[in-house]
Design goal:
With about 210 residues, this protein is mainly beta. The protein has four helices and 16 strands. The chain has one domain: Fumarylacetoacetase-like, C-terminal domain (Fumarylacetoacetate hydrolase, domain 2). The strands form four sheets. Strands 2-1-13-6-7-10 form a six-stranded mixed β-sheet. The mean pLDDT is about 95. The structure holds magnesium ion.
């Protein structure tokens, strides 16, 4: 697998606590407005590439999410028009160093390590039944997360519109729409899969990085 097809978004915009049960499992309230943070594009990896656990980072969790790839420049778009700006839908893993996230107010460190943004195939939005989207996460073949659009606090069109009123979304930008309940730690030797049933499966091995 070469790097030629690695996407180069100008930014990866993520939504925190967008499923009620997930917010609760980490002891958080559901926010009144979408809670946004950014992951650096340098964190991106493709299907099959390893997620590297930083040895000093403590617990590192998977977060299976529905990813939205932007196809057209979007600034101040309405919720009704939002999906017309989307290129594709596919699986994303918002890998998170959980202990560092709890330690820091800003999450750049916890969310930003190299390899912490596996991104799967983005299926053209015209081929996607947007009302039936769901996401399933498995570790070593065992199901850990299952979520569907109906459990989301803020819908995908709402999120696109909301973000586009803050920052212009460029073609190739990626939006990660939040994770359902069931997050948990990864260990060296695990294989983690994020599947959007009927669309695509993102599979990545997990390895412990070197001390350096
Ligand atoms: Mg997340």
């Amino acid at each position: 697998m070469g790097t030629a097809s690695l996407p180069r978004p100008s930014k990866i915009v993520c939504v925190g606590r967008n499923y009620v049960a997930h917010a609760a499992e980490l002891g958080n309230e559901v926010p009144a407005e979408p809670l946004l943070f950014l992951k650096p594009p340098s964190a991106l990896i493709q299907v099959g590439e390893p997620i590297v656990l930083p040895p000093a980072a403590g617990r590192v969790d998977y977060e299976g999410e529905i990813g939205v790839l932007m196809g057209r420049r979007a600034s101040h778009v309405s919720e009704a028009d939002a999906l017309a700006f989307v290129e594709g839908i596919g699986p994303v893993n918002d890998v998170t160093a959980r202990e560092l996230q709890r330690k820091d107010i800003q999450w750049s460190r916890a969310k930003g390590f190299d390899t912490f943004c596996p991104m799967g195939e983005m299926v053209p939005v015209l081929d996607v039944d947007m009302d039936r989207l769901s996401v399933v996460t498995r570790v070593n073949g065992q199901e850990r997360q299952r979520g569907s659009l109906s459990q989301m606090v803020f819908s995908i069109p709402f999120l696109i519109s909301y973000v586009s009123r803050i920052m212009t979304l460029e073609p190739g930008d990626l939006l990660a729409t939040g994770t359902p309940e069931g997050v948990g730690p990864l260990a060296h030797g695990d294989v983690v899969e994020v599947e959007l049933p009927g669309l695509a499966t993102l599979t990545n091995p997990v390895i412990l990085g070197p001390e350096r």
